[in-house]
Amino acid sequence: METLLPTPQTAFTDTSLEIAGKIFSSRFLLGTGKFRDKTELTESIKASGAQIVTVALRRIDLERHEENILGYIPQDVTLLTNTSGARNAKEAVRIAHLARESGCGNWVKVEVINDSKYLLPDNEETVKATAILACEGFVVLPYMYPDLYTARALVKAGAATVMPLGSPIGSGQGLRIKEFIQILIDEIDIPIIVDAGLGVPSHAAQAMEMGADAVLVNTAVATADNPPLLAQAFALAIQAGRLAYADKNKSQPTPPMTANPSSPLTGFLYDS
Amino acid sequence: MITLGDIKNILYDPSRETTERLAQEASRLTRQHFGRTITLYAPLYLSNFCSSYCTYCGFHSHNRIKRFKLTAHQMRQEMSFLAEEGIENALLLTGESYQATPLSYLKEATTIAKAYFPNISLEVHPMEKAEYHELFAQGVDGISVYQETYNRQRYQHVHRSGKKADYNYRLGAPERAAQAGMRHIALGILLGLADVAEDLHNLYQHIYWMERHYPGVEYSISFPRLRPVKGEDFAYCDVNDITLVRIICLTRIHFPRVGINCSTRESPQLRNHILELGVTRMSAGSNTSVGGYTITAPDKQDPQFDIKDNRSVSEMISLLKERHFDPVLTDWRRIEVA
Question: Does the interface ipTM go beyond 0.95?
């Protein structure tokens, strides 16, 4: 017998995610690459509840309006154009300009990759592009390798968030460098969005439990057998992780320092 | 790095299970890294003048075909046709004649093509780095330059005269294109010219080397099989469908993120199946004659090679959708920062 999944009820109210003065209730950003069917993309966006969606300018079919990917993204979603294909800061800046001129707005995910084998981001060029674009009034969400110095430089350059990778793009390996992402979560005051490498919902849950402000997923959803279903699974996992984080961090009295009756190491001080 | 012995073991293993095992793994990796997407492109032949004598090619200098190159007006006519068909990635080709299609001609063609296509690649004679850079600055983002075979002896045997007979100059062309800033470089071997396993091994080494030294370039690989020209067969050894499929799968497994091209040299039936196995880029609605789309009547055409898959761009798009693939017409937009 088929039955609808029960909807968990929660009395918990969360603080909202704020990026560049804009408030989001969803902490799930969805990428739009690799989908086999654009209508499935629309269904996945809806199922994910994502309020921010990334699109590569290189894939926006400005010439063929009926196939233009922008037509498949709901109007109320914030469009985040990414600079996929940029090999240095100059190219990323150029792509951001083209995106703005094409009517894609001024939210840009800076992605500078000069390595087609591992697709790892070039942090140095990313900082340069972020500084230029932030200065020009773009809302910049830079994709980066989780390095504390780079994250600080990005904050200084005017980034709206910092987006460390969990593992290489499309690899689905999860959080391979979680300790270093944790350092960014602990030390950086602007939102940390874990991006790339999250292969299954539990990876996303783990990132959220650690205290990430949001996650971005693309390949895992786009290449699933049933993308809208997996989009919803990720959405639930992100909420689960967020609740677990909230529980861990709720203000509660610190446990009293109770004496250990056995005191194996210090007992001698008191034995007389 | 896979050894030549391993490649031979895999290509020549008679077992059917080996083919299926390779295909399963290649299919999985392709879906993981590319999703169910196929990028479409089309060739546009600008000229069939050629000063090289390559025994297997319909354009070679000793072949008595009508030589001509498109004028600017004819280029617009051909390009406009392709653009209206829906093509946005155009591959402009010429025979290899440094005199008939010099750099200035290629730059002019590029300037015209920019009005029609967001992404332009060239498959022309190898050049110097400075020349590639001029083309990049003009708006060319990709270069296809196939070594054809890495076996020097066979190379000299089939490339009898002209600049193409210079093995080393051709071998260095991908590096010069990368140094000039090209973002997409296609390498390849012409299957049937020499021992397939040896050529594949050498091609892999070439790509490893290029990736190591020029990591920012997006690479793709082509495995054209020798096709008859006007019915005449030039193949030195036969590469059957099973071997071709194994080559594609093995390549995907060793280069998970590299593009794999498949042209209309292959039959519709094979192309329909190969979609699932590792190919990521396909030509569609192709004609391999100069002016073949709108200028030269079909019975007057001298193709570079005979086409097997005559389906139009819209038919390919419908087929891809039927098979749950997203046909990608735009996978790069020229940004002109050179």
Answer: no
